[in-house]
Amino acid sequence: MKRLVPVLFFMLLCIIPAIADEQANLNKSVELYNSAISDYKEAKYVPALKSLNKAITEEPENELYLFTRGVLRYDAFKDYPGAITDFKKVAELNPDYPELYSELAYVSVFNRDIQSANEYLAIAETKNKKDLKIFLTRALICIAYQDYSGAVLQYDKAIELYPDNSDLYLRRGYAKAYMRKYREAMKDYDKAIELNPKNYSAYEKRAEIHNTMLRTGKARKDWIKSEQLRFNKN
After folding, report:
1. Helices (H), the chain
2. Buried b (16+ CB within 10 A) or exposed e, 102-120
3. What is the dihedral sign for C-alpha 151, 156, 157, 158?
4. CA atoms of 223 and 206, how far apart (whole Å)
5. Helix 100-110 to helix 114-127 angle, to the nearest 10 degrees?
6. Exposed, middle or buried: residue 24 (CB in 10 Å: 0-12, 13-18, 19+)?
7. pLDDT 10s digit of each residue in the chain, 234 long?
8. Burial zone of 1 (CB within 10 Å; 0-12 exposed, 13-18 middle, 19+ buried)
9. Are 229 and 203 in contact (CB under 8 A)?
10. Residue 145: phi, psi to the nearest 5?
């Protein structure tokens, strides 16, 4: 027993530094991730990506970090193949990761792979039929085939579930404008602005409608407002 105590003590001396190093790495990765999220919210995309890359280097199998980097890649950098690679890695680590397949479907459309998008949608619907990205993706597929009425139908369904989502009215208005239903599109842009007065894209699209209807004064006013909001001018 006397011999066993020094051996155990020696083992602890070896293990404790290793545990401390691992904890330090975890703390560092969390700090990097939080920094990335902060930069992402402020549209500082390059620093956000750098922090996420470092966090993933510290924890290469962290599902959250990989998923977040995937979203950042397609949202900020239009790097659709890179985003798909990250999402597929998440799928390998955890096939039940929330919203994973709807994101894969959404990005696949932008990557011009409609077949994969439909395959991922089928999986996403078994996970959560109310996932917003499902409706957005189906609408995008409709638009890809110039089926704007089909896109409007998808946005209608989404708005029933998420009536306070400004972006949905903006997107539906965009589809209606393609159908030359300008007055209906205008109502959607109005609603988008009502729900989110800082939605500069809604002002921009509404300006286009005003211009089409030869309301040049109102068009100019909306263009100015859109640019003010876009660049955070007073």
Report:
1. 4-41, 45-58, 63-77, 80-93, 100-110, 114-127, 132-144, 148-161, 166-178, 182-195, 200-212, 216-230
2. bbbbbbbbbbebbebbeeb
3. positive
4. 9
5. 160
6. exposed
7. 445 445 444 444 444 444 444 454 568 999 999 999 999 999 999 999 999 999 999 999 999 999 999 999 999 999 999 999 999 999 999 999 999 999 999 999 999 999 999 999 999 999 999 999 999 999 999 999 999 999 999 999 999 999 999 999 999 999 999 999 999 999 999 999 999 999 999 999 999 999 999 999 999 999 999 999 988 754
8. exposed
9. yes
10. -100, 15
* Structure-block tokens of residue 85: 């690679």
Tokens 């904890």, residue located: 23
Cβ-contact 171, 191 below 8 angstroms? no
Task: Give the type of residue at 158.
Answer: A
Tokens 């011009």, residue located: 112
Q: Which two tokens stand for residue 74?
A: 């397609």
